[in-house]
Amino acid sequence: DGEFPWGVIDPECTTRVCDLYPATAQCAGGSKVVAAAELAWDDIAQGTHPDCFFISAVTALVRTDPRLVARLFVTQDVSPSGKYELQFFRDAAWQRFTVDDRVPVSDERGTVLFARSPTK
Q: What positions carry a catalytic annotation?
C-alpha cells in the first residue's frame, strides 16, 4: 500500500487499544482476546480511512460464524506487552503472524483510521 508502506508507520501516529478504551474489561487483564460468544457483526465500524476490505471480511466472518474469528487468535489471553500471534490460512496452509495492538490514528484526539467500536 503506497499510502501506508510496510514498516513505515510513525509511532507518534499510533496508540494502543487499551489507551483508547481503558475502561474495558479486556484492558483490566486476565481476560480473553476474543470471546466468540460475545462477537457480533455490528461490533465493528469503519474508521475514517475509506479502504475497508479487511474490516469487511472480518465482519462477514463474524456474521457467519464468530468462532471462525476466534480461531485466528493463537494468543488467547490479553497481552500486557500488546504482542499477539494470529494465524491465517494462506497458500493451502495455516501461517502465523505476530502483530501488536497499536492502531493508526489521525490526530491527537485518537481518531482511529481503519476500524473502531461503533459506540466509542
A: 52
